[in-house]
């Protein structure tokens, strides 16, 4: 990542190096924070943030799920996001929204800990290169009966950190996690799709998978391409026997999977290619049908 000039913190832009928190911040000790990863893309009309309102609404839902009040409205957060990207002079960037319980008192109870909100943006390439090699992790995906998997919260991400480290140490690029029932859930930071006989399938939320905004984007693009998409439980072996497998996420985009464990899947298939092309056209403002997904940084 490449550091930028400013980070927005609680209503003001501060120099990157001065965006600090107290060592006794509640979220550092207990994982009481929610986050969003969003992207701004270069378009013919200038930089624009892709599906910003959807990301901010999910941030609000996540905060509500873990019982943390947000001290800013969505309109205020939208304006702050655009101001941050503009102040950093970025034509394209990754944007991290974070709301966390700050310093107030120690202990599990967080009632006396204020909510601190920050927005950072930086230039960052794609999270994964094309031709991802997936490893089925030995770590089980978080269960929604144990932690709220519907919230994009920081604490449960330790699950992803452990799975990612295991996969990298074994020589793979990414991990795919199974849930308690042995069904495919998601990767450490991306949703997964399989294609068989031209039909797409992706795990449902009850599998422990976050309802991804890029996942939803893929579904809408697929429908406009005349493709069928279903949310259904998938077995590990469904990944082995698929015609195509790809992962998707804000940081990753749409990336084809070349291997899962011992099974070689080969190069990108035609369905993945069509969707990747459609996605690139949408995020860069080259397809008028999806202009409503883009929020111009310049207003």
From TrEMBL:
It comes from the Bacteria. InterPro entries: Aminotrans_IV, Aminotransferase-like, B_amino_transI, BCAT-like_C, BCAT-like_N, BCAT_family, Class-IV_PLP-Dep_Aminotrnsfr. It catalyses: L-isoleucine + 2-oxoglutarate = (S)-3-methyl-2-oxopentanoate + L-glutamate; L-valine + 2-oxoglutarate = 3-methyl-2-oxobutanoate + L-glutamate; L-leucine + 2-oxoglutarate = 4-methyl-2-oxopentanoate + L-glutamate. Signal peptide: none annotated. Keywords: Amino-acid biosynthesis, Aminotransferase, Branched-chain amino acid biosynthesis, Pyridoxal phosphate, Transferase. Coiled coil: none annotated. Pathway: Amino-acid biosynthesis; L-leucine biosynthesis; L-leucine from 3-methyl-2-oxobutanoate: step 4/4; Amino-acid biosynthesis; L-valine biosynthesis; L-valine from pyruvate: step 4/4; Amino-acid biosynthesis; L-isoleucine biosynthesis; L-isoleucine from 2-oxobutanoate: step 4/4. The keyword Transmembrane does not apply. Its EC number is 2.6.1.42. Its cofactor is pyridoxal 5'-phosphate. One of its GO terms (molecular function) is branched-chain-amino-acid transaminase activity. It holds the Pfam family Aminotran_4. Acts on leucine, isoleucine and valine. Belongs to the class-IV pyridoxal-phosphate-dependent aminotransferase family. This is Branched-chain-amino-acid aminotransferase.
């Amino acid at each position: 990542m490449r550091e930028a000039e400013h980070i927005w913190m609680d209503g003001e832009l501060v120099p990157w190096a001065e965006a600090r928190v107290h060592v006794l911040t509640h979220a550092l000790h207990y994982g009481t924070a929610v986050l969003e990863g969003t992207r701004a893309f270069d378009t013919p009309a200038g930089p624009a943030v892709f599906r910003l309102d959807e990301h901010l609404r999910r941030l609000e839902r996540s905060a509500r799920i873990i019982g943390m009040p947000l001290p800013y409205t969505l309109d205020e957060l939208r304006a702050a996001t655009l101001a941050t990207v503009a102040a950093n002079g970025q034509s394209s960037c990754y944007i991290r929204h974070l709301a966390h319980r700050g310093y107030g008192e120690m202990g599990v109870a967080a009632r006396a800990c204020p909510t601190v909100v920050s927005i950072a943006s930086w230039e960052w390439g794609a999270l994964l290169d094309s031709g991802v090699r997936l490893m089925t992790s030995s770590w089980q995906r978080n269960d929604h009966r144990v932690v709220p998997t519907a919230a994009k919260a920081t604490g449960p991400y330790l699950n992803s950190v452990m799975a990612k480290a295991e996969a990298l140490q074994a020589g793979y690029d990414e991990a795919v996690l199974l849930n308690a029932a042995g069904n495919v859930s998601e990767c450490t930071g991306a949703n997964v799709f399989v294609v068989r006989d031209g039909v797409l399938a992706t795990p449902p939320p009850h599998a422990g998978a976050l309802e991804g905004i890029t996942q939803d984007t893929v579904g809408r693009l697929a429908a406009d391409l005349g493709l069928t998409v279903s949310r259904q439980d998938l077995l590990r072996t469904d990944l082995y026997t698929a015609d195509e497998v790809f992962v998707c996420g804000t940081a990753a985009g749409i990336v084809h999977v070349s291997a899962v464990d011992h099974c070689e899947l080969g190069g990108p298939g035609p369905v993945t290619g069509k969707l990747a092309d459609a996605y690139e056209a949408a995020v860069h403002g080259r397809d008028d049908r999806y202009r409503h997904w883009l929020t111009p940084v310049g207003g």
